[in-house]
């Protein structure tokens, strides 16, 4: 029994190390790409572009369901972007709260007596469209409830421009975020079909009129952990995957798409809680099935600020939903895996996601159980156990250091040395319970998938004004 438990613990440990080594390779791609981004940004003229007629117009889609606490600040943020020509389309997806009412009252919106809705993508019926000439960029679409994917499809149908951006209703864009995405698109408009932006945690930041005026670290434990997770995922991960055109997800919180290709792949799919991952895999498949040159890019300096859950209950619901979306999309398109035709996506991205992100939690959980079994049986080799735990902690720290180094070299959103030290300490603290909870939540999400549970789950927003007031009171 001792040999079996010890052998499995070592197997699980080395499997996790392989995961980290693979991710280290992706991080190296990120470093190589970030150097090019830094050099390119020195010569970028975003101020000039923001007033140029050569910049393509964009339709910004904001799917909204029960967003009365955050929607006004988000819309104000979007109406003040440094961008020459764009429209903001808020899609009220049958909200049960006062989302529609407060939008109408805040912006003095009136229903349009005549309007046209394209029927390119399947979506629930539109009940009305609201507009005010005093806010010419803003349109509010009121429709029957159909879910986030359905709301996005309705937004595409109503949109007027050939490029569409998507943003969550609890998010705030920096003023130059959209022009930065557009500049990446303009480098190669024929082949660029989607671009992801960088999502950061806004909890604890100073926010005025929908604008992050001062960046601060979150003052609460869970948002702080998520802040570090976002840095790792977006800076140490997605930059690298985009460098080899193997990006599997453009976050629903902020992304830019060519509208014609969204229509060609029949838009967003209902019943997939991971609609942002689903649309990207569909785009990859369509382009390679038709032998079309393309790229799906990532722009780390186009920043969107989002609210991170502050309670375990809400965070658990979010992570279960992410896990369901992940496994559902991977199984749906499993035929692409290990097929040379699908290049980096089929040979690297999808197998990595299946083996390490979908099945990895089971290796970790059973590895922990094997170690506990050794202890309970009083047959543990404590030197080996300490070696396993110490090596795991060291790799986690090195990975966190890599993400923070990219942040420090390229962006310096947290210029205080104390902030970097604090994030490093929290990244160590995450290994002592938080990471294990995430493993458990992923497994619960997979159980929901087996039960065919496609519900969105619980998500409670906090008013941006309340968030800022609470922080100022705390300090």
Description:
With 475 residues, the chain is of the alpha/beta class. It has a single domain, classed as Alpha-Beta Complex (Spore Coat Polysaccharide Biosynthesis Protein SpsA, Chain A). Strands 3-4-5-2-1-6-11-8-12-7 form a 10-stranded mixed sheet, with helices on both faces. The chain has a two-stranded antiparallel sheet with strand order 9-10. A hairpin with a 2-residue loop joins β9 and β10. The chain is globular, with a radius of gyration of 23 Å. The chain starts with a helix and ends with a helix.
Topology:
Elements: H1 2-43, H2 46-49, E1 58-64, H3 71-79, E2 86-93, H4 99-107, E3 110-111, E4 126-131, E5 138-143, H5 148-158, E6 163-167, E7 171-173, H6 177-187, E8 192-201, E9 206-208, E10 211-214, H7 221-243, E11 254-258, H8 259-264, H9 275-289, E12 295-306, H10 312-332, H11 343-358, H12 360-376, H13 382-411, H14 417-429, H15 434-450, H16 464-474
């Amino acid at each position: 029994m001792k040999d079996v438990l010890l052998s499995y613990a070592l197997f699980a440990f080395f499997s996790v190390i392989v995961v980290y080594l693979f991710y280290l390779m992706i991080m190296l791609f990120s470093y190589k790409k970030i150097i090019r981004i830094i050099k390119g940004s020195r010569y970028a003229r975003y101020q000039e572009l923001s007033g140029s007629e050569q910049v393509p117009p964009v339709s910004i889609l904001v799917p909204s369901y029960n967003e009365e606490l955050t929607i006004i600040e988000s819309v104000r943020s979007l109406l003040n972007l440094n961008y020459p020509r764009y429209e903001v389309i808020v899609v009220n997806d049958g909200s049960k709260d006062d989302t529609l009412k407060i939008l109408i009252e805040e912006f003095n919106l009136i229903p349009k007596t005549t309007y046209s809705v394209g029927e390119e993508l399947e979506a629930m019926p539109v009940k009305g469209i609201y507009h005010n000439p005093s806010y010419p960029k803003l349109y509010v679409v009121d429709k029957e409830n159909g879910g986030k994917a359905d709301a996005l499809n309705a937004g595409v149908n109503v949109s007027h421009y050939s490029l569409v951006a998507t943003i969550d209703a609890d998010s705030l864009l920096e003023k130059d975020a959209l022009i930065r995405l557009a500049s990446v698109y303009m480098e190669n408009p024929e082949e660029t079909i989607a671009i992801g932006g960088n999502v950061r945690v806004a909890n604890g930041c100073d926010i005025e009129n929908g604008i992050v005026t001062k960046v601060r670290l979150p003052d609460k434990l869970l948002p702080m952990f998520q802040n570090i997770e976002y840095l790792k995922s977006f800076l140490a991960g997605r930059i690298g995957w985009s460098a080899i055109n193997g990006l599997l997800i453009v976050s629903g919180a902020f992304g830019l798409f060519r509208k014609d290709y969204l229509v060609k792949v029949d838009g967003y799919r209902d019943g997939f809680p991971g609609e942002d991952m689903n649309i990207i895999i569909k785009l990859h498949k369509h382009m390679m099935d038709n032998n079309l040159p393309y790229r799906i890019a990532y722009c780390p300096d186009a920043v969107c600020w989002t609210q991170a859950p502050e309670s375990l209950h809400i965070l658990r619901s979010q992570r279960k939903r992410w896990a369901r979306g992940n496994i559902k999309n991977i199984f749906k398109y499993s035929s692409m895996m290990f097929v040379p035709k699908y290049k980096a996506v089929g040979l690297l991205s999808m197998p990595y996601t299946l083996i390490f992100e979908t099945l990895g939690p089971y290796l970790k959980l059973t590895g922990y159980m094997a170690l506990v079994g050794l202890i309970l049986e009083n047959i543990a080799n404590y030197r080996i156990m300490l070696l396993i735990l110490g090596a795991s902690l060291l790799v986690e720290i090195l990975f966190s250091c890599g993400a923070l180094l990219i942040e420090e070299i390229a962006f310096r959103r947290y210029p205080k040395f104390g902030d970097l030290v604090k994030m490093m300490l929290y990244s160590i603290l995450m290994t002592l319970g938080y990471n294990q909870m995430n493993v458990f939540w992923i497994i619960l999400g997979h159980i929901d998938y087996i039960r065919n549970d496609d519900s969105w789950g619980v998500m409670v927003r906090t008013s941006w004004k309340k968030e800022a007031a609470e922080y100022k009171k705390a300090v």
